Amino acid sequence: MFSTKVFIGFIAVATALAALAQEPGFIWDKLETSTELKWTDCYTQPLQCARFQVPLNYSDPEGRSASIAMIRFPSPLAGTEQYMGPVLLNPGGPGSSGVDLLAEAGAVFSQILGPNFDIVSFDPRGVAFSTPRASFFPTEAQRQFFVSSSFDDVNATSDGVARMWARAQILGALVTRQDQKDHLIEHLNTENTARDMLRMVEAHGQEKLQYWGFSYGTVLGATFASLFPDRVGRLILDGVVDSENYYAARWSDTLDTDKTLQTFFDSCFEAGPDLCPFYESSAQAIARKLDELTRTIALRPIPVITNTSYGLVDYARLRVTIFNSLYAPYVYFPPLAQGLADLVRGNGTALYQMLDTPLFDCNCGTPVPLPTITDAIFAIRCTDGQEVRDTVDDAEDYVRQLLRLSQWGELLAIARVSCAAWPRQQNKHFRGPLVGNTSHPILWIGNTADPVTPIASAHKMARGYPGSVVLTQDSPGHTTLAAPSICTVQHIQSYLLNGTLPAEGVVCPVTGPIFSASQPSNDTTRGLAGRQEADQDIIRALERLRQSFKLRPLF
């Protein structure tokens, strides 16, 4: 049986971060767009925002322009000899909001990276608060209707892949119709965003890029390094996507998703029944228990009513909840274990609430609100990739290929299938080669059990950039943000401050187990005993950053 609801933002670290509404009293549209960085206080002190003008089409730099929403946590050392310029962050996606990332966690990133740097992020062109936006629907109500009808229960039956493919034809037609009006889609690509970043660097009065990119952000970083190898200052690429695979629209990396799930079984067993409610007599027994529960739920869904919504814990919701939990095991494995244990007893509330979102309330006739993240995910991903014109038979063969790689392969199929009717691009943009003799070597980082960006991708990508080093973090989860490691942070700090790379083959441990006696979500004490005060501060900062993660289904 193919999975039903499908997670479409599967290489975004920020899809797990809490999205922020526009703050009362701060409206992005009222900021002046300028080719200079005119910072204005926004959100909470000391955050500052700006709207930065770039060409929409770099082949016509005097033509239409785009307005890039930028945000920074300023360095307290600006104007001193200790100031070392901006570090740009990209949270992934494609299509995730860097403004949301920094508004939520700017102070934490500043604490992790140190006071020498401005911490800067942005919404890439087409995304969230940047304009023009990727938007294929005249109202939010129509968008919500399409999303709920398109990706709810699409693969529960034998014709599920065919339904997914057919709805991709509708999506392509909607995009084509909208693009005939605004002629925008071809300009929403990673090459242009890399060029935007170069302009941001120059607007800061800097020559070279300092950057930390997560997940899809590693595609953006690798693209920048290929286009502008002599403008690389420091590049940290964390949770590495195989960029060649991405640009080819294959989405067929050898996945470690099953390996990540195995860490749930292993850590639950090691924790014991007092700490893991889903415990059984062996890791294998826990795995069998989950298989049995999944079969039961597929036949007999559990109804749930919460204070904000209602629905079913069915095969689809169970599978997607488990899959999403693999992104941040330290945050979500403990509540997942409780939710599964409750589900065995017929109570689906805890598991349902892990993905619970308020029901959509239509304010019909009003303009589409910001941000329109779902549209941007499709816009960038499908525009970036090689043209996909798969038939239904091709799509079904593709899903079968992914399933041979992982039991979770069908959850990733929509990344390609959704692009099957994307409008043809008139102009070519960068899709490789992904190589470059950079002015400073790149630091690539991967986890030993990342569910969607396996460590093998980091090693593959590093071979194209002489002098690169791959740092391994010995943990499950997506990107280094998923688990606490003083070792990893120290290597990142050393690389940014003085350019020092770790030795080849370094594997960083993490602090503390996934299941612990002090498990509540506000716990900041794990792994602190016997550590230096500076290390304790970093562990607390990493804990706060992980607690920013919120599971949000993007179907």
Automatic annotation (TrEMBL):
Listed GO MF terms: hydrolase activity
Signal sequence segment: 1-21
Domain Peptidase S33 tripeptidyl aminopeptidase-like C-terminal, residue spans: 408-508
Entry-linked InterPro entries: AB_hydrolase_1, AB_hydrolase_fold, Pept_S33_TAP-like_C, Serine_prot/Carboxylest_S33
AB hydrolase-1 domain ranges (all copies): 86-245
Entry keyword set: Hydrolase, Signal
Pfam families: Abhydrolase_1, Abhydrolase_4
Family per record: Belongs to the peptidase S33 family.
Name the UniProt record assigns to this protein: Uncharacterized protein
